[in-house]
Amino acid sequence: MTVAQAFFALMAIAVALSAIMAVAWLVQQRTGNSGWVDTIWTFGLGAVGVAGALAPFDALGSRQIIVAMIIALWTARLGLHIAQRSSSITDDPRYVEMARQWGSDAPRQMFWLLQKQAWVTVPLALAVFLAAHHPASPFRTQDIAALLLMTAAIVGEGLSDHQLRTFKADPANKGRVCDAGLWSLSRHPNYFFEWLGWLAYPLLAIDLTGSYGWGWLSLLAPACMYWLLVYVSGIPPLEEHMLRSRGQAFRDYQARTSAFFPMPPGR
User: Fold this and answer.
1) Alpha-carbon dihedral of residues 189, 183, 174, 98, nearest 10 degrees?
2) 26 inside domain
3) Can you give the residue range of the structural domain that contains 18?
């Protein structure tokens, strides 16, 4: 891969993601339900990832097809889950609190927030592109490890979402904090498994022999995802909401349960 090809791919990814999040802003403004933002983000990233993996769409290699299938599977599972959740709520409490703080300037602030989300998503789509265009063929041992890791991540995140959905569906749990199953090991097991899945792309992209230097840039994907989930748009706003709505029950849960990495419960 030449520098010119890498630069073109980077610019195409950035422009596409920016346009997708502009659409997400329009939908949020029209519907008043910011839950659709994450739905559009997921399907948008998936579409860019698949397109990047398969480009330039001629003489497709097996690696390109498999990587495209991986990101498509991730997109379908997470996107449909978030879409179902968004259709059952009137708004996302994380964005509601931001809009309250912004006041009358909320529409403009929301637009730029979503554009920032587009920019920090670029490393994710780039990692998919780099993994798909690694020249190695056939698959290496670390590629097989990557597929197993992604499978574990998708299953783990799906199980986490199922356990939370089942907990909330029981009327006896109204007002309680979910600490069942994987939620007894981590306060955000779904976030942990989401991050874990993005470690698969560096495994697919990096070449320890040094013949594919571009692959090392894929490490930005899990680093960026960890930063977003743990410090920006994941845990902080969600836990602020849970503290307001669950109070001492959630404080007790925080005291005994790991925030991100699954660990045995304890004080």
Assistant:
1) -30
2) yes
3) 3-256
Distance CA 37, CA 85 (A): 12
pLDDT band at 120 (very low <50, low <70, confident <90, very high): very high
Place of tokens 């097809």: 65
3-state SS, 22-35, equals: HHHHHHHHHHCCCH
This model's pTM is above 0.85: yes
Q: Does residue 40 belong to any structural domain of this protein?
A: yes
Omega within 30 of 0 (cis) for the link into 56: yes
- CA 106 – CA 202 distance, rounded (Å): 37
Of 200, 191, 175, the residue nearest 258 (C-alpha): 191
Q: Does residue 261 lie in a domain region?
A: no
- Between the two ends of the chain, the Cα-to-Cα distance in Å is 51
Q: Rounded to an integer, what distance in angstroms lies between the CA atom of residue 50 and that of residue 71?
A: 7
